[in-house]
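Please check the following for our workbook:

***
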Amino acid sequence: MDKGSLSRAPALSRTVRIHVPSEVAYDLERMQKVTASVLGKLGCGGCHSGHVLEFVHLRDFVINPKTLDVQDQFVGR
């Protein structure tokens, strides 16, 4: 392992992935509550404490069985 890869290792191990459905992702107030809650679970409700938060927007698709068309299903939007 070279010196450059060692310097990146701590950030990778401190990455937190949060899966967020559309009805939350498009609501700023709810996203702020989610962020505060996640940060609280990490030990500091007011800061990232060196963690990298990665929000993953969950999307649902619906397939029409007759035409096989793929459409987004937006819940709560």
Remarks:
- Residues 3-73 form one domain.
- The chain has three helices and four strands.
- The helical segments are 3-13, 22-25, 28-41.
- Residues 65 and 71 are 12 Å apart (CA to CA).
